[in-house]
Prior knowledge:
It is a single chain. This protein has a 4-stranded mixed beta sheet, covered by helices on one side. The chain is of the alpha+beta class. Helix 4 runs antiparallel to helix 6. Glutathione binds next to helix 4.
Amino acid sequence: MSYILYHVPDWGSSVIRLVLEEIGAPFTIAPLDWDAGDFDSPAFRAVNPLGLVPALQTPDGPVFETAAIILWLNARHGGLGPGPTDPERGAFRSWLMFTSNTLHQTVLTLIHPDRVAGEQVQDIVQARALEHLNEDVAQLEAMIAKKDPDWLSPRKPGALGYYLGILLRWAMYLPEDPGMRFSLRPYPALRAVLAAHERFPAALRTASSDGLGDTPFTAPDGALE
Ligand SMILES: N[C@@H](CCC(=O)N[C@@H](CS)C(=O)NCC(=O)O)C(=O)O
């Protein structure tokens, strides 16, 4: 049986495409068109009542929310992070949840500052989001530099590397004001992890299918030098 990934290229569902490619699980793509109203269609809302991607149809029913899908696929297939008896499991899950609950939301605020409190204050909101994002990424940088974990490493592909690759890619090129674009320059340990992840075979395949370019996680088109 093949999974069905509800997908828009370079949206959050690209994270799940990357991890499905990584584990080699068979999947088909159900493309969604936001302008055509697909996100509000009864068929899609039956899969994800929240009307967001990623959403994955599995043999056990639909799973949505990026972290939930990653944990579900890791439990079923392995290969994305520490398994159930691995002493590193708690640390991996902690940083995955931090990424999903905090860093992901900060990136969404950075790229859609108007959604928080309207257009009048969007410049202030965006500037604060960039500060928060740098604080969030500094936490990850310190953890990698200290711990050098296998589950977020240049040595080995993992779900957290792919997840951060997509989130930080958006932060690097989507803000219209170049002064509001995130830069990886102050974060050499994380940069090395993402540079390795964009060269792993699963990333090369996804970059090709989703049109992410040659250096999707370290230097997406439009990023600062
Ligand atoms: N917390 C959710 C966030 C998902 C999310 O914000 N998805 C965006 C695309 S990246 C979406 O589907 N937006 C459609 C809309 O807002 O209508 C997750 O991790 O899955």
